[in-house]
Specification:
Blueprint: H1 13-32, E1 36-37, E2 43-45, H2 46-52, H3 58-62, E3 65-68, E4 74-77, H4 82-91, E5 102-111, E6 123-132, H5 137-154, E7 159-165, H6 169-183, H7 192-200, H8 215-218, H9 229-244, E8 250-251, E9 263-271, E10 281-287, H10 291-295, E11 302-308, H11 309-318, E12 329-335, H12 341-353, E13 358-360, H13 367-376, E14 379-385, H14 387-392, E15 394-399, E16 405-409, H15 413-422
Parallel strand pairs: 1-5, 7-8, 12-13, 12-14
Antiparallel strand pairs: 2-4, 3-4, 5-6, 6-11, 7-9, 9-10, 10-11, 14-15, 15-16
The chain binds one RNA strand of 76 nucleotides through α3, β6, β10, β11 and α11.
Length: 433
RNA sequence: GCGCAGUUGGUGAAGUGGUUAACACGGUGGAUUGUGGUUCCAUUAUUCAUGGGUUCGAUUCCCAUACCGCGCCCCA
């Protein structure tokens, strides 16, 4: 048996409908924000991610799907989409457009070679927004508002917004030095992972679950004390706008993010749901004012976020949020025998083109099984087509709920269905029978 | 990359070193030759992830591989 690759999954039936529904919500939400859709290739030159995401990040150093194409070019399946969107922004010279800032959203699969576990796949889908050309702190707040509003729209309750600031390059570098100096004499008190972090990304030490209770960690210098005046003001303003939008947040100085490109605001939205597993960060993002320049464009500020669809779906499931209604049909067509199938096909096709949801038996079931099938399909009406119906130009249509039967003339079927389907079955207003 | 636990039909699953692999749901056919959702009957895994090994014999024991699940690292 050929199996699907590790860490991937198939989408079908119920799950497929759910995902299509979410995709529609995303697209219409983005219209409200006046954000344009952007789509970039699933693979890019490997160098893009090395320069964009950062050579030293785990994502690039050990999690990418790399391959050599037939022209011996180094290619990588995108592990995230920010670098790709920035490349597209530069390559298409969007920085020159009149319409600034440039607001873009994307949705699609990302690839990371990791051990799968709860809420983590090798192929996973992200919805994200990237906005270029403005350093306005109000925009940082707008970015944070998108996932918050999206989750709210879906009815997801247990979410928590954590924000922090890494400051501009100057502040960030000062702080890094301070941390290195601070931890140097205590290195052997830290766990193995943290000793490695000391070399690679000292900010991460603060985030360690293992060492979290050590005094050295608790008393470590705090980034917020190292922000210069500009960075401090930016961060205060972001908070001001968040409050104006009524978005609850917490300042968490330990959020540093694993991607190298962040400056100023960084944030995470986590599922604050008891028992929800360890992969509880549903969304992450922040400002990246140096990224466009690093990738080779003009110095341009940017800010964005990405959220994972799989984690969102499992959070919704965990909170018992249904999203979609049960599938249903307007009419299920039952030909009595082989002789009526041609006629039944013609009726079915006509009604579909008139906007009804119709299906018909293709298993040549006996009538009893077909009635069962109509229930499985949640059909509101059943049409039985036999010799008598064909000869006399009518259909026997049965309301699957009330069991009432009607003989409906062929030319009146559309009117009949219109009339009976408009009024929902559980409407008790008494205006119609 | 590391650690732990799993893998039996369409589904949920029980089970044992030895030729019938329980039970339930679902599916199909019938009792009812054009009206079901109840009931009853029949049928539904030559096979227990894959490949090796031990054995007279393995789905059951051992090893390897694959995949799934959970955790670490990291991230969405």
């Amino acid at each position: 048996m050929i199996q699907k690759p590790k860490g991937t999954y198939d989408v079908y039936q119920e799950k497929g409908r759910k995902i299509l529904y979410l995709e529609n919500i995303i697209a219409s939400l983005m219209e409200y924000y006046n954000i344009d859709y952007v789509r970039t290739p699933i693979f890019e030159a490997s160098e893009l991610f090395h320069r964009g995401v950062g050579e030293t990040t785990d994502i690039v150093s050990k999690e990418t799907y790399d391959f050599l194409d037939r022209g011996n070019r180094n290619m990588t399946l995108r592990p995230e989409n920010t670098a790709g969107v920035v490349r597209s922004y530069i390559e298409n010279k969007m920085y020159g457009e009149a319409n600034q800032p440039i607001k873009t959203w994307y949705y699609g699969p990302m690839y990371r070679y990791e051990r799968p576990q709860s809420g983590r796949f090798r192929e996973f889908y992200q919805f994200g927004v990237e906005i270029f050309g403005s350093n306005d702190p109000a925009l940082d707040a707008e970015i944070i508002s998108i996932p918050v509003n999206f989750y709210k729209l879906l009815g997801l309750k247990g979410i928590k917004v954590n924000i922090n600031s890494l400051g501009d390059s100057e502040s960030r570098e000062n702080y890094r030095q301070a941390l290195l100096n601070y931890f140097k004499p205590h290195l052997n008190c830290l766990c193995e992972d943290c000793q490695r972090r000391y070399e690679k990304n000292p900010l991460r030490i603060l985030d360690c679950k293992f060492d979290a209770n050590l005094d050295i960690i608790k008393k470590a210098p705090r980034i917020l004390d190292y922000l210069n005046e500009t960075s401090k003001n930016h961060f205060l303003n972001v908070q001001k706008y968040l409050k104006a939008m009524n978005i609850d947040f917490e300042i968490n100085p330990n959020i540093v993010r694993g991607l190298d490109y962040y400056t100023h605001t960084v944030f995470e939205v986590e599922a604050d749901i008891k028992g929800f597993g360890s992969q509880n960060v549903l969304c992450g993002g922040g400002r990246y004012n140096n990224l466009v320049e690093n990738i080779g464009g003009p110095s341009t500020p940017g800010v964005g976020f990405a959220l994972g669809l799989e984690r969102l779906l499992s959070a919704l499931e965990f909170e018992n949020i249904k999203l979609i209604e049960e599938k249903s049909l307007d009419l299920y067509v039952i030909p009595m025998s082989e002789n009526e199938k041609e006629y039944a096909s013609s009726i079915t096709n006509g009604l579909r083109m008139s906007g009804f949801k119709i299906d018909i038996d293709y298993m040549n079931r006996n009538i009893k099984s077909n009635f069962k099938q109509s229930e499985r399909l949640n059909a509101k009406f059943i049409a039985i087509i036999g010799e008598e119906e064909i000869n006399n130009n009518y259909l026997t249509i049965k309301n699957n709920k009330t069991k009432q039967e009607y003989k409906v003339k062929i030319e009146e079927i559309i009117d009949f269905l219109d009339e009976h389907l408009d009024h929902d079955d559980d409407c008790n207003c008494g205006h119609h029978e």
